[in-house]
Design goal:
Elements lengths: L2 E7 L5 H10 L2 E5 L1 H9 L5 E2 H5 L14 H8 L5 H9 L7 E5 L3 H6 L5 H6 L4 H11 L5 E3 L5 H9 L5 H26 L13 E6 L9 E5 L12 E4 L5 H14 L6 E6 L2 E7 L3 H11 L7 E5 L5 H8 L3 E6 L4 H7 L6 E4 L11 E5 L2 E5 L21 H14 L7 E4 L4 E5 L5 H12 L7 E4 L7 H9 L3 E4 L6 H11 L2 E4 L8
Helix pairs in contact: 4-8, 8-10, 12-13, 13-14, 16-17, 17-18
The structure holds the ligand NC(=O)c1ncn([C@@H]2O[C@H](COP(=O)(O)O)[C@@H](O)[C@H]2O)c1NC=O.
Length: about 500
């Protein structure tokens, strides 16, 4: 008796050639409605599932292959006498290969004009049941879920290499696939932020040469069907492969640049911004970001939220950068930058929408999960506790500094003037330390600048240092028991203070 293959696929890519190959290797093909038609039209000899089961497809395709004759054919242990006898008693033939890919649930769900009923109908039941049965029976049955495997499977059969280890690999792929499929369905059924168990699913983009350090292995994964403003959905146009650290830094640059609607440029080093500029055009924005810290930008990453024009490309090409990220490059700009062999150019669609992703941090034996963040603040959320109030121009810089300080590692202080960072104190174990670093970096430029702090002032010392340097306005969350001490200092020196009521720790 010939071996049997059951083929039931939604994505019909490559299926005709695969089926022809299997037929040529003397496999009898059984198939479901649409797949059967495709194969018949291509002249492949094929039998309908209902001719095997004696039971028609019913309920609009909700029941096609869910039948004991199919599932016994997949689940019987071929080396078990009792199983063999039961199969003989019921005249059931074993199925040797299952080729199934599932209803396109996520693709249907992502369509803009789709009804809830259509989404539900695209939850595949019979397909996963067959795949899982075949995968459980990997000692006897091959479960093929990925069209990319058709060629290898055919070759393996031809060379008598479709053995248990290979079937086990195919089975593992099946269980990963059905787990991902169910995770996406569960995500559709509830938007509960913290369910009783938290299942995530990602798809591999690439294996990386190494992780944060050369002795660490690493890979980059993306959300299935990712289309937002992210590295995963961006395109690398030029340069060497991204490293683990490149991806982390580039992602930090993207998170920051998403804050600004006007033309902006951000330079990032070790996941902290070292210079940010906002202006009327990208070229001036980059000049500001560069001037903010011409030392730290060396070997850094630059992201701009406007296409890179020729002038900006000239400026960028005069310094050593690892990566430039932008929504596009003009032809001339691209020509200039690609003269540098090693620079990586990434094209990423820019939008201001903040991602709703959870943030996951592994801890020993578990994971911490948090939502992505507070509401956008507006003027009505602010408190102005000092005698001096900020001017409109001060407010522009205060907002700029506030948006920036959110992305600096805590304890963080940012000084800004004319929408340009002039001093950034990052990752210090005490707030006054971060303030001193930022003020030292700003030097004389601190006179007339604004200061943002990611968390409240536990003491008046930061306000005192700011006053000494000539800072004219401060934005900070407020909420310290000793807020009044800092307010008193500001009143003494005519500094305007703004309280946001929102803290922005970033550890
Ligand atoms: N209900 C069933 O018994 C069943 N058996 C197989 N399917 C799916 O039907 C699809 C193929 O359908 P067709 O050959 O009619 O185009 C495959 O994605 C397969 O996973 C089923 N459909 C959904 O559950």
């Amino acid at each position: 008796m010939n071996k049997q293959v059951l083929i039931s696929v939604s994505d019909k890519t490559g299926i005709v050639d695969f089926a022809r190959g299997l037929a040529a290797l003397n496999y009898d093909i059984i198939s479901t409605g649409g797949t059967l038609r495709t194969l018949k039209e291509a002249g492949v000899a094929v039998k309908a599932v209902e001719d095997v089961t004696g039971f028609p497809e019913m309920l609009d395709g909700r029941v096609k292959t869910l039948h004991p004759i199919i599932h016994a054919g997949l689940l019987a242990k071929r080396d078990d006498d009792r199983h063999r006898q039961q199969m003989l008693d019921k005249s059931i033939n074993p199925i040797d290969i299952v080729v199934v890919n599932l209803y396109p649930f996520k693709q249907t769900f992502d369509q803009s004009s789709v009804t809830k009923a259509e989404v539900i109908e695209n939850i595949d039941i019979g397909g996963p049941a067959m795949l899982r049965a075949a995968a459980k029976s990997f000692r006897y049955v091959s479960a093929v879920v990925d069209p990319d495997d058709y060629k290898d499977v055919l070759q393996a059969i031809q060379h008598d290499k479709l053995d248990t280890p290979m079937r086990k690999q195919l089975a593992a792929k099946v269980f990963r696939h059905t787990a991902q499929y169910d995770t996406l369905i569960a995500g559709y059924f509830t938007d509960e932020a913290f369910p009783e168990n938290f299942t995530v699913t990602y798809e591999k983009v690439q294996t990386l040469r190494y992780g944060e350090n050369p002795h660490q292995q690493a890979a980059f994964y993306k959300k299935p069907y990712e289309q937002g403003m992210s590295l995963a959905s961006g395109r690398q146009l030029h340069g060497k492969e991204l490293s683990y650290n490149n991806i982390q830094d580039a992602n930090a640059a993207l998170e920051i640049i998403a804050e600004y609607a006007k033309p902006a440029a951000v330079a990032v080093k070790h996941m902290n911004p070292c210079g940010i500029g906002v202006s009327e055009d990208v070229n001036t924005a980059f000049s500001k970001a560069y001037r903010a810290d011409p030392v730290s930008i060396f070997g850094g990453i630059v992201a701009c939220n406007r296409p890179i024009d020729v002038d900006t490309a000239e400026q960028l090409s005069s310094i050593f950068l690892e990566i430039i990220i932008a929504p596009g490059f003009t032809d001339e700009g691209f020509t200039i930058l690609t003269k540098k062999k090693n620079i990586r150019l990434l094209e990423v669609k820019m939008d201001e929408a903040k991602s709703a992703d959870h943030q996951l941090t592994t801890v020993k034996g578990g994971v911490l999960i948090q939502g992505n963040g507070p509401k956008e603040l507006n003027h009505d959320d602010l408190i102005f506790p000092t005698e001096t109030k900020p001017t409109e121009a001060d407010m522009t810089d205060l907002w700029f500094a506030w948006k920036t300080v959110k992305h600096v590692k805590s304890n963080a202080i940012v000084l800004a003037k004319d929408q340009e960072t002039i001093g950034i104190g990052a990752g210090q174990m005490n707030r006054i330390g971060a303030a001193k670093i930022s003020l030292e970096q700003a030097g004389d430029k601190a006179e007339g600048a604004v200061l943002a702090s990611d968390a409240f002032f536990p003491m008046p010392d930061t306000a005192e240092e700011a006053a000494k340097a000539g800072i004219k306005a401060i934005i900070q969350p407020g909420g310290s028991k000793r807020d009044q001490d800092s307010i008193d200092v500001c009143n003494q020196y005519g500094i305007a203070m703004v309280m946001t009521g929102t803290r922005h720790f970033k550890h």
